[in-house]
Amino acid sequence: MKNLNDVLSGVDEVLNSAKHGNFEDVLTKTKSYAEKATKKSAERLEISRKKIELLDSRTKLSKAFERYGKLQYSAYIGEEINEEEVESALQEIQLQKTRADLLDEEIAALREAFVESLSKKEARQYVRQEKKEEEMAQEAADEE
Hints:
Blueprint: H1 4-19, H2 23-76, H3 83-116, H4 120-143
């Protein structure tokens, strides 16, 4: 999360503190830094996990739309269709649409809380990185 200079200056501060006999301070600062880093990693992991769930839901939604479309086309050309299959496809569409909307909201809330916990510089870097990842994902989707 921090750039190399910030980490090195933090290490210098800890080492200087240790040289002056404040070993307890060194341990406390080290523990505090480790806890903060662990918390931020867990938060990012949760956001990533939710994004994967969202992609799964959108994939299932797309397949449900495709199934529904095929059934409707079959009905259009005069083939006999099972009304239960049509109803099942409609229910799956509604379920996955609702699930995707809820996941979008959860991701937005988690992301906002995470960004607020960062310094301004870290927040800008995170937003830039996130934007770059979204562009890469969009390019990959466009290629398919």
